[in-house]
Design goal:
By secondary structure, the protein is an all-alpha fold. It has two domains: about 55 residues, no CATH class; about 55 residues, no CATH class. It is built from six helices and no strands. The longest helix is centred in the first third of the chain and has 33 residues. It is rod-shaped and about 90 Å long.
Length: about 140
């Protein structure tokens, strides 16, 4: 049998070297991940992203920025939906439908009944007879 004598100092120095190597490889991976993330972000957005220490922080920062932009787009589409002007029936219904679809894509759910009410309420006065008939019906 072999007898292995390892001094305490030698063992500790090997542990320190091992930890240092692991940290260096982790920092290389982090830098590479940050480079990939920054390269995949559109150039117009890239300038507005603050510098971060880790790739995880960078992803969280980007996520926060896009959450804010989702709310802004939801607001803009709702304003467009509310202020939509009538041109002709077919075009008007298509515009309302497109805005509702965009809002649903942004995780803002609007019921189909509400969509129909938006269309009917935004019709001009020449459709008053239709509006009265629609509102007097008890069915959907």
């Amino acid at each position: 049998m072999f007898s292995l004598k390892i001094s305490q100092k030698s063992l500790m120095s090997h542990q320190v070297d091992l930890k240092r190597n692991l940290m260096l490889s982790g920092s290389k991976a982090n830098k590479l991940a940050m480079l990939i993330i920054r390269a995949s972000v559109d150039q117009t957005i890239r300038g507005g992203i603050p510098t971060c220490e880790t790739a995880k922080e960078l992803l969280e920062t980007i996520k926060k920025q896009f959450e804010g932009s989702v709310r802004a787009r939801q607001y803009n589409y709702l304003i467009k939906l509310i202020n939509l002007k009538y041109d002709d029936v077919r075009q008007h219904i298509l515009k309302v439908s497109q805005l509702i679809i965009r809002l649903r894509e942004l995780a803002l759910q609007l019921e189909d009944d509400l969509m129909v009410h938006f269309v009917v309420a935004s019709l001009p006065s020449k459709f008053n007879t239709f509006k009265v008939n629609y509102s007097s019906q008890g069915r959907k």
